[in-house]
Amino acid sequence: MWKKSIATLAVVAGALMAISLPAMSTAAKAKPAARQINDGREDCYACHEEVKALKEGSKHAKLACDVCHSKLKEHLANSETKPGTIIDQALCGKCHKDQMESLFKVNYESPARKEKGVPTGRSPMMDKLLAPYGFTIEHNEPRGHAFMVTDQFVVDRFAGGRFQYKNGWTDVDKVGNTWDILKDNGPDFKMSETAKAGNPTCIQCKTSDHILKWKFMGDKDPKAQWDRTSDVIAVAKETNHIVGCIHCHDPHGTQPRVVRDALIQAIDDKGSKMFAGKDGKTDLKVISFRDGFRKIGVMQKADGRLMCAQCHVEYACGKGFEFSTGNPVGYDDQRTNHFPLTGPKELLEHYKKTQNFYDFKHAVTGARLVKLQHPETETFAGSVHDKAGVTCKDCHMPVLKNKAGKSFTSHMVIKPKDHVKEACLRCHPKFTAEQKLYQITAIQNYSKGKMRKAEYWLGQLIDTYATAKRMGVSEDVLAKAREKHEEAHVLWEWWTAENSDGFHNPELARDTLTHSVALSKEGVALLNKAIDAKAGAPAAK
Amino acid sequence: MWKKSIATLAVVAGALMAISLPAMSTAAKAKPAARQINDGREDCYACHEEVKALKEGSKHAKLACDVCHSKLKEHLANSETKPGTIIDQALCGKCHKDQMESLFKVNYESPARKEKGVPTGRSPMMDKLLAPYGFTIEHNEPRGHAFMVTDQFVVDRFAGGRFQYKNGWTDVDKVGNTWDILKDNGPDFKMSETAKAGNPTCIQCKTSDHILKWKFMGDKDPKAQWDRTSDVIAVAKETNHIVGCIHCHDPHGTQPRVVRDALIQAIDDKGSKMFAGKDGKTDLKVISFRDGFRKIGVMQKADGRLMCAQCHVEYACGKGFEFSTGNPVGYDDQRTNHFPLTGPKELLEHYKKTQNFYDFKHAVTGARLVKLQHPETETFAGSVHDKAGVTCKDCHMPVLKNKAGKSFTSHMVIKPKDHVKEACLRCHPKFTAEQKLYQITAIQNYSKGKMRKAEYWLGQLIDTYATAKRMGVSEDVLAKAREKHEEAHVLWEWWTAENSDGFHNPELARDTLTHSVALSKEGVALLNKAIDAKAGAPAAK
Amino acid sequence: MWKKSIATLAVVAGALMAISLPAMSTAAKAKPAARQINDGREDCYACHEEVKALKEGSKHAKLACDVCHSKLKEHLANSETKPGTIIDQALCGKCHKDQMESLFKVNYESPARKEKGVPTGRSPMMDKLLAPYGFTIEHNEPRGHAFMVTDQFVVDRFAGGRFQYKNGWTDVDKVGNTWDILKDNGPDFKMSETAKAGNPTCIQCKTSDHILKWKFMGDKDPKAQWDRTSDVIAVAKETNHIVGCIHCHDPHGTQPRVVRDALIQAIDDKGSKMFAGKDGKTDLKVISFRDGFRKIGVMQKADGRLMCAQCHVEYACGKGFEFSTGNPVGYDDQRTNHFPLTGPKELLEHYKKTQNFYDFKHAVTGARLVKLQHPETETFAGSVHDKAGVTCKDCHMPVLKNKAGKSFTSHMVIKPKDHVKEACLRCHPKFTAEQKLYQITAIQNYSKGKMRKAEYWLGQLIDTYATAKRMGVSEDVLAKAREKHEEAHVLWEWWTAENSDGFHNPELARDTLTHSVALSKEGVALLNKAIDAKAGAPAAK
To answer: FRET partner for C449 with CA separation of 20 to 30 A, picked from A423, C84, C216, C366?
Structure first.
């Protein structure tokens, strides 16, 4: 289905050919004279030495520049005329057919539109615990990468419901270019119980389409078509592909790389040890283009943890408020594009002290809550598997054989529980698949038990707070209870946002979830004490 | 099993042979002289011309009258001696073996006695939201038609528990004649947490046994053995078969038909456009017998929607109260046998204004609530599938082949999800069964998410109301909250009563369920405002 | 796996050879002179006539004493030197290979660490209904006998978390000797949200290792290494095997037997009719050793009900309180090792009047609650199956064939639902497995519906109590509500503790669970009445 709808995306402004290493910036800006083209590359290399450095000697060395770029002749004639760049996965797929086909393969084991916040769901008490945050409008269990854009755009909390499937529900398993699948019902469309919570930054984790139109960190810039404050509908409507090959693979030279700005910034700032090798260093060379307009990070050796960390982390991308003042923090503020890259125990402190940022106040208690995303990377860091040198792709992207018997890395990310043999037994050959599945399930059963207890006690804290407030319990007691709520909330929500049900790091899950329970119980106890004092009633017999 | 227990039900009083078209009533009442019988029909036709009109030229033309009727000789000798009529499906099954066997086939995929009102069930918050209505006693997920009578009679809310399986739980999958399977523990039998909520009208949707003993609309009449006020136990104990072939197929001439009185009345009253064809007319010729004692509706062409609408609709059949006065409405009132035949958005208005009828008051808020039944027909009306000309049988009654290779319409009504190939792929041949199942599941996942949210917010409304009342919030605020409860309740319960989890009309489900959420939130907000004013507490920080 | 870790447990103090029938006690204590040993038995029999009586003529007659006992020569030389006794199942397994291998077979259909107290679990409202009892810390669905010791030791409520798997979660399906699988993190180990609720008595149901070191009823005695007040950690660390063959089979003569003290006491005290045959007598000859230091009960014919009743009953083994005084009851009190052997309707009365013992007070209401265990035996007593002469093993321990085609009784206890053919169809050959599974499921669906309703109403009672207390409702009303709570609680918890979801006795389940609902509703009603009077508010409209 996606094959038919492959389209080329000619990106003009701020095109890749225009980027340059800082040392080359003057030369790059100079207008080259019109010249004879052979297979194109010599003429291009004359200005773009950095491309030559990546390309020559690499597996892509034999490709002519016009394979991926258009309007080269015009650009050579007049450097002000920008060339086009094809970002569509279909181009890469001409040679990397198995990888691309697997990327778009639908995993029918992962159902669509499965709400998390229901009694049988992954987050049964979500409506109470996250009130009134947008995720309470609709928050579904994730399904494959092939749907990452369309699922985001149609969810009831993204754009007020104006983006819907063109042909209704029969499009729910359709993959391919966004606007071949979706339609826009327009700005006047009204739909009950929706939210307009999408923003341009969150789209950068779902697509590579804007890679040349978005300044590093999404700051405003005359050279950037989009920034953090852009109209999200406009950005969405020019988003036609899911995250592309180029997010993880340098197109000029096939080097493993990362492009997501907040990840690069976090590693640059803190020299994050999360991804360090045995030598204590992180294998990431950050390259700045066009005086910092863009940065990419190139690895010597592909590190699945870094590649996946471009999205599978806790991050801030929405508007929020300052802890210190309560003042709003808008999209003009760089704090709305931030990767903490820290563990659950340190996270609240990080947001309170370093970032001075929270997402929303709880509807009942008024506690200042951080909305968690999907911190798989931070969870996995330091786990038994991480220490053993396992990376994401070892379990989630198995090496398969195509029909011709040739091996390739599947880019349909698998759930190990559905593919235990491929995911586990290569490293654990002495176990049967039945045993490994049993062990995984045991961990998840245990972790889910703790999650449910953390939810129960957060709920008790919220309900007891409501009673206390109505009975006129003093603000100093209420303030202490809110603080317990803030602490207990982060330690719980981490795990309902994280997608492994504790498997990525069972000890950390146990440790933090039970600490959440303990904090909620402390909050309930101090409220109950104040309530009983108010009521003049003796404590429970 | 059922084969052994087939019994004939000789219906004497008000027998079918006695019915007559109004124009013929004088002739029919005249006593015919004793005459020679050949194969019977000429003698019968002498008085019963309407039978001749239906029968001659039809597929049943070759059948002699005494195939289905007994005591014909006595009746001919003395018309006061009424003939008998065999209603048992077994008689029809002599020729329509495949249809009858499929009608009684047990679908082991549909479990028995599966309570809806449990956390993992179809209506997890039922005990709170429907308190104190009888459905909170026991309310199970439906299983096949073969169990429609026995399941109703044994459910703990029907007859105080006095009807039970003869051999205990091993009878739970037994089909056949009611009283071969069940026993009556008698009027003195006591069982905790039961209700006696059955009534004669509700039995008319489960069986055809009383078709000649029940006046149109169940009104009292000397010629009728039963009416709406009859002793339900007595009616039950003479109910031996599930809905018979004759509910949908005229026995004299095989014409497609309907017999359920409240459906015929609703279409007659309003000329319901719900079942109209492209010409704007509903294909239903209503025929009145015996000066309106009975009515049937005959179709030119079988319309599955009409046939199924005899039961699969929202209806009122129990006692209730008037909105305007609060006075009880008893079974003597025709409002206790009523089909609204209207959609969820218009339903409350219909019950408030037109019917002036509600079922019960909520235990906590005192809101006047309408108990919803299973409005599949109204839900489907106007849906994508309805507009495409699909009717119920196309998805639920597949054409199968018997062992001899002959095609027949299965009368074991299927769940399409268990039989996607038969139910969907005839019309959608370009999809695989896996895809269609995935798409159905997506709709249901989404709709179930909205149902759970509607339930959560109704629960919040109820709990907040209890707090408000206890804090002395003024009656005018409480009254507004009750009104919100009344509105939000109908829009939710429609979908938990309806059996498709939104599939029959996903847009309508989404629209009404989210409106239910919005209404509940409005109720919670106005109560909280009043509570905070009472408490003198500031709003949540 | 377990094969490699088989170790012999040489038990010295209070060894089996030292026990004697009362009449023989003098002879047994006399020091025998040093003598020639042939195959050992004549010398042993000289003092141990009771062993001769059990052994000679039995299936074990041909075994020499030193097969199971060590240091015989030394013991013969000096009777003060106690012989050793091998309790390890591995010894029995040398001849009874199939039985032993099946005992240790892992049933991968039963997941590990599956918390009951979650919305989709067996006891969804446990955290509220059992607060603050230790079971709210972690309470899992049971899995096979092979894990009975390790599962108990690692559960978060047993030893504060200090016992954990040696190799982490990959040990979760490992069977064999306890301390080959587990490690002890030591007394200083701290883990959040754990409890230290284990006690020496509860270990006696999990292992046979202490059979010679534990006086009857666990009373303190110089000859006993352990008693009820012993350090549970010390007892645990010397517990290396799950319940052994000798729990149910006398090792000297293979006679069917029971050894669990509280069962023997309960039958001795009350001459329990629960296990009586048609002659009204229970087939259990109780033999007292060493002046009552130990007792065993020997059967003429194996009665699975008695054997299983050693563990699968309601019992008290933890500390508690007296109903009459509120005073604590410690482990020094024999009430902490007690089998009531009574049904759910009589149980509270038994604990209130006869035992004067309750386990804990509810966190909110202060009701004095009995913590139920797994009363399968009492539930089954009097059921349809019990009356038909069925015993536990008939459904749970099928006769299988080994690879050589030889029949043996499986000692991997099965869930009948997973093995309907073996469990049901031998006695019900006219049904298909599909039908029987359907019928079982129907019973469980119905019973689970009632359980969920009982939970809902207990929750309502607790919440309403909290409101009432805060509004200053008078103590006499609160006291009445607490009494309702105490009664309703037992009738509910029985069934969530019992493992058949009502199947063992559907009528009893229905009867008691609905009575629990009725009692909770009475409690709610009397509280609401008092609350409304306080609030001056009119009752719900």
So the answer is: C366
To the nearest whole angstrom, how far is the Cα of A316 from the nearest Cα of chain C? 30
Which helix (H) or strand (E) element contains residue A29?
helix A25-29
What are phi and psi for residue A184, nearest 5 degrees?
Answer: -110, 120
Chain C environment of B470 (Cβ under 8 Å): 467, 471, 531, 535, 537
* DSSP structure class, residue C31: P
**Secondary structure (DSSP) of A46-72:** HH-HHHHHHHTTSTTTTS-GGGTEE-H
For residue C525, give the chain B residue with the closest CA: B363
Interaxial angle between packed helices A433-470 and A475-497, expressed in degrees from 0 to 180 and rounded to the nearest 10: 160
Cross-chain residue pair A112–B448, CB shorter than 8 Å:
no
- Is B224 in contact with B253 (CB distance < 8 Å)? no
Radius of gyration of chain B (CA): 25
Using alpha carbons only, what angle is made at residue B386 by residues B384 and B387, rounded to the nearest 5 degrees? 65
Give chain A's end-to-end CA distance (angstroms, integer): 67
DSSP element (H, E) containing C441: helix C433-470
Residue type present at position C230: S
CB of B389 within 8 Å of a chain A CB? The answer is no
B173–C439: do the CB atoms touch at under 8 Å? yes
Tell me how far the alpha carbon of residue A39 is from its chain's centroid.
39
Distance from CA of B430 to the nearest CA of A (A): 11
Q: Does A119 touch chain C (CB under 8 A)?
A: yes
What are the residues whose beta carbons fall under 8 Å from the beta carbon of C330, sequence distance 6 or more? C229, C319, C336
- Indicate whether this model's pTM tops 0.90: yes
Q: How far apart are CA A429 and CA A426, in angstroms?
A: 6
> In Å, what is the CA distance from B295 to each residue of A171, B235, B298?
46, 21, 10
DSSP B1-47: -GGGG----B--TT-GGG---GGGHHHHHSPPPP---SSSHHHHHTT
Site from C446, C471, C521 to mutate, B interface, most B CB atoms within 10 angstroms: C446
> Do residues B458 and B522 make contact, with C-beta atoms less than 8 angstroms apart?
no
Short-list A348, A288, A203, CA closest to A21: A288
pLDDT tens track, chain A, 541 positions = 333 333 333 332 233 333 333 333 333 333 333 333 357 788 889 888 888 888 999 999 999 999 999 999 999 999 888 899 999 999 999 999 999 999 999 999 999 999 999 999 999 999 999 999 999 999 999 999 999 999 999 999 999 999 999 999 999 999 999 999 999 999 999 999 999 999 999 999 999 999 999 999 999 999 999 999 999 999 999 999 999 999 999 999 999 999 999 999 999 877 778 898 778 888 899 988 888 899 999 999 999 999 999 999 999 999 999 999 999 999 999 999 999 999 999 999 999 999 999 999 999 999 999 999 999 999 999 999 999 999 999 999 999 999 999 999 999 999 999 999 999 999 999 999 999 999 999 999 999 999 999 999 999 999 999 999 999 999 999 999 999 999 999 999 999 999 999 999 999 999 999 999 999 999 999 999 999 998 865 444 4
DSSP reduced 3-state for C189: coil
Nearest chain C alpha carbon to B467: C467
Residue given tokens 């209704």 in the structure block: A168
Contacts of C531 in chain B (CB under 8 A): 470
Closest CA of chain A from B486, distance in Å: 19
The amino acid occupying position A166 is K
Which residues make Cβ contacts (< 8 Å) with residue C332, sequence separation at least 6? C220, C228, C229
A-C CB pairs within 8 A amount to 91
Q: Are C96 and C60 in contact (CB under 8 A)?
A: no
Which ipTM was obtained for this model?
0.91
